[in-house]
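hey so u asked for the seq, here:
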Amino acid sequence: MSEAEPISEYLSQQSDLDLLRFITCGSVDDGKSTLIGRMLYEAQLIFEDQIASLQEESKKLGTQGDAIDFALLVDGLAAEREQGITIDVAYRFFNTDHRKFIVADTPGHEQYTRNMVTGASSADVAVILIDASQGVLTQTRRHSFIVSLLGIRHVVLAVNKMDLVDFNEDAFQSIVTDYKAFAEHLEFSAITAIPVSALHGDNVTERSMHTAWYTGPTLLGYLETVEIASGKSDAPFRFPVQWVNRPNADFRGYCGTIAAGQVSPGDAVRVLPSGEVVNVKEVLLDENKLDAAVAERAVTLTFDREIDISRGDVIVAANDPCEVSDQFEVSLVWMDQDKGFTGRSYWLLLGTNRVNATLTDIKFKYNINTFEKLSTKALQLNEIAEVTINLDTPIAFEPYKVCKELGAFVLVDRYTNATVAAGMINFALRRAQNVHRQALVVDKQARRRLNGHKASVLWFTGLSGSGKSTVANALEQVLHEQGIRTYILDGDNVRHGLNKDLGFTDADRIENIRRIAEVARLMVDAGVVVLTAFISPFRSERDMARAMFEDGEFLEVFVDVSLEKAEERDPKGLYKKARRGELPNFTGIDSAYEAPINPEITLNTDTLNVAESVDRIVEQLELHG
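ran it, structure tokens below
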């Protein structure tokens, strides 16, 4: 036998090993990085030069004196090494003779919970560490809750730092009892408790002589043998289209990664949301034609005829399609410093799809210690809630528990591109299927012809005292004299009726604008020129309002004034009350005003009088037809 044959045989054996993804999580300083470092070291999965480097770095940066600090194997960021904590998610790939592994070491600090969500989203097993000297902490509960929410059903409860409690069995059992009582409310299939000392290696890869009372597996032994049923290949075929490949006029292929199921040439498939049915002509991997492809394989599909397919569409089994909807109940983990409010819109990214989404209702948030469901109007950083959302276009989806790839999404701020939340679809709202638009014979165009002019909305925005209502009122008189049908929706007037139940918190301001935008849309549909005079302080809500109208129907009028001038005018005495602390959340004083970036019309009422402002608007209206 040649020397190459044993190597080839070994490589073949390694390639046949299955892959286990697992995550380590828990409260800060529970020893997650040390545990992974010790496991890699004792399993002899570190090269000699890495050990030499680790020994040198341990002397300079470690926390164990002259001994090796195994956490440095994983804590790759300089800030982590200096502080002795994990900030980002650190991924490590390793393998033994029994299995291949990808481990995600996640941060324990509360402010980095969003990073923990990222690491847990693709894991099969969660190793939840608890400091034996501290017991079950709030962050332990939060991470466990998120692990359950993300569908991880196999949990290792690694009670670490057993050396600090003299490897006492009663201390171990007390922690296990407390944790299992808490975890009764979670959806774990199995919880395997293991007493360990990551620092000294007890029960990490070898059984410890300090825990003769423990008869269960070592941590590595458990990870090598735990059975995780994937089931992805047995599920119905799901294929989100990532890219339409059209290198020339003779070829059109649809590229992506199979989320679930399998596909072969000749299979009948359905394209969602359009519902078109075609047959698969070829399954391609580079230039190779495959007889079949299964879940997690990136391939290109061609079909027996050309139809309209684009990025974001989902190709599914024709006889077993997934659902399509634009309204959902979801579980949401809020990941942004800025609060999340109902009525605010974001980009929703699900698979290869990006659509506009609005939080329509926060049903409740969880108290992670008691599992109590609490009412709230806003979501704070790291809070977990059940929320309903509405999309501006229907998408193909599966409930998260059925298919993670078609049920997991993130919400992204439309201005900063920051990820503000991670979500899991629970189900489509029944009203999405039961409520349908009624076709009307008399439409907007017919009303326009009858009125003899276009309908539109002029959205006046600016600080209190800027002159919004005054200018809008004067403009309406001019338009009325020209025979144009108009109506003013004024902020103060509307709060006496439609919005009398709303206050002036950020959440109520957002709902105030949402309602006005909906009313304005109905009035524009009726053929009326609508003038809205509201502070409308938030850019996101003004953009939400704009998105409701067709191109050219929405004109943003920024009534610009300095705060000093607005306070000098103070026609209703509101600034004086706000300065005395009698009006909390007053825009310009203790609540922000976000000026428009690119309004159609800007009026500087520091210098323009009412007549000049009206003339400028009329000029712009004529330019806009």
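The chain is about 30% helix and 30% strand. The longest strand covers residues 353-366.
lmk if thats what u needed
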